[in-house]
Design brief:
The protein has two domains: about 1-115, Alpha-Beta Plaits (2-Layer Sandwich), CATH 3.30.70.1820; about 120-175, Rec A Protein, domain 2. The protein has helices at about 5-25, 40-55, 55-60, 75, 90-105, 120-125, 130-140, 165-175, 185-190; strands spanning about 25-30, 65-70, 85-90, 105-110, 110-115, 145, 150-155, 160-165. A hairpin with a 5-residue loop joins strand 6 and strand 7 (about 150-155). The protein is an alpha+beta fold. A five-stranded antiparallel sheet has the order 2-3-1-5-4.
Length: about 200
C-alpha cells in the first residue's frame, strides 16, 4: 500500500480517537447502584451527586445532561444492578466528582458504589496489550497515566518515563520485578471495560 495512504489512514484513526476521547470525557460510570422498577434514575443520581458536591439536589440535577442504565457482562456475571452512565453538562463538574470518589467511599442504600471513567472501545483495544503492566503497577501503587493513543507515562524512582512500545513495557515490567506468569485477572479487565448494551 502506498505510504501516503497509510499515513492518511493513521491520521484519520488518530483524529477519530481524539474525538471519541473528547466525548467520553463528559461521562462517568457508576456500578452497584441499586435498581427499583419505579425509580426516577435522574433524581436518584442527582441525590448521590448532590451529596458528593454538598449542594442541593435541585441545583445538581441541572449538571446531569443524560442519565441511563446499561447492561454489562461484568454486571450479569456477578448479578449486580445495571451500570448507570451519566453525561455531565460540564466536564469540570465530572472531574471534581471523580476526584472526590478517589478519596471517599460512596454509598447508596448501604451499597458501596464504584465510579469509573468512560473509555472508548477504540482506545481500550489500543491499551489492551499494556494491561499486564498497568495492573501490576496498580498492585505496586506505582503512578502512571495513559497516553491517549498508545502507551503510558510512569513515575518511577522520582523519574518520569514514557513507555510506548511493547518491548519497553516488557523490559520495565521485568525491571520492577513482575513475575513471568503475571497476567491480568478477568474481573479487573472487565471492571475497566466499556462493553455495554443499548440504552433502555
Amino acid at each position: 500500500m502506498d505510504q501516503k495512504i497509510i499515513d492518511k489512514n493513521k491520521e484519520t484513526e488518530e483524529a477519530l480517537t481524539h474525538l471519541e476521547m473528547d466525548r467520553a470525557s463528559y461521562y462517568l460510570r457508576f456500578q452497584n447502584v441499586e435498581e427499583d422498577k419505579e425509580e426516577n434514575l435522574a433524581l436518584v443520581m442527582a441525590e448521590i451527586v448532590a451529596e458528593l458536591l454538598q449542594r442541593e439536589k435541585n441545583e445538581t440535577i441541572n449538571e446531569l445532561d443524560d442519565v441511563y442504565r446499561v447492561f454489562t457482562s461484568y454486571a450479569r456475571r456477578h448479578r449486580l444492578p445495571r451500570e448507570v452512565h451519566i453525561r455531565f453538562a460540564r466536564r469540570q463538574v465530572k472531574d471534581i466528582i471523580y476526584k472526590i470518589s478517589r478519596d471517599e467511599v460512596i454509598k447508596y442504600k448501604g451499597r458501596e458504589i464504584i465510579m469509573l471513567k468512560q473509555v472508548p472501545r477504540r482506545v481500550r483495544e489500543q491499551q489492551k496489550d499494556y494491561r499486564f503492566l498497568t495492573n501490576y503497577l496498580n498492585k505496586k501503587n506505582i503512578s502512571f497515566r495513559w497516553i491517549t493513543l498508545v502507551g503510558i507515562w510512569v513515575t518511577w524512582k522520582e523519574k518520569r518515563m514514557k513507555i510506548d512500545t511493547l518491548s519497553e513495557a516488557q523490559h520495565f515490567y521485568e525491571q520492577i520485578g513482575g513475575p513471568e506468569d503475571e497476567s491480568s485477572s478477568r474481573d479487573e479487565l472487565e471492571t475497566s471495560s466499556q462493553e455495554e448494551s443499548p440504552k433502555n
